[in-house]
């Protein structure tokens, strides 16, 4: 019996600067710290279930009231906070009115957290378009899995034909078994000497022709991107990588070592942005494009 597909997350990342987000800042300003806490609680309910939560507004408020405790928060305060989250765009308004709590940002974070899973069910209430999915490196991997599944079905059909033949010829059956063992060994060798696994950002720079799929530094790129995301956050790293890919198409002077260029330029600017005391509300993507690109190669 096949194992059921896991829907929810055991944990989800929360950026250290999450509360500097403009929407969360407005939520805090208008409704106080409890409203932010309520929002985080709702995220926990959503991610425990997957990327969306099918629950009416009334049932959500009742659940939150029980979880947070009537002694500590009034029901009306929860109602105001939930409605504020919807009005600020933290949750998709149309789906919320239908009793579904989710948002594009929530779904992006879910896909990022579940990227190592073999199967992810996104058949209901999915808000991310194909362009966004491609940026996340998901569309390609989903297509590959689909092809692999179809190929597997073909093999199963072939095996059923072979079984009927083997019932007639016992020698063929023995030969088939021996061949299967050999095929297993060949498959094992291929898994050892085949292509390394790709980080989704490594796949992105391959798809956008920054490097080839046989680049000798693929493993280095994997480590670079994984470490950078942990240190600086997914959105900032993605913005920086996208900008550097565009910049590298017509560089002056030419780039001699693309890996060194990517590593130094990305990390240097992410670190500089992180250390700025007053960013004036500017996002990293905007800051990166406004002439602050530091290339040291």
UniProtKB/TrEMBL annotation:
Lin1244/Lin1753-like N-terminal domain location: 11-106
Residue ranges of the region described as Disordered: 150-181
Domain of life where this protein originates: Bacteria
Residues in the signal sequence: none
Record field: compositional bias (Low complexity): 153-173
Matching InterPro entries: Lin1244/Lin1753-like_N
Name of the protein in question: DUF4373 domain-containing protein
Origin species: Hujiaoplasma nucleasis
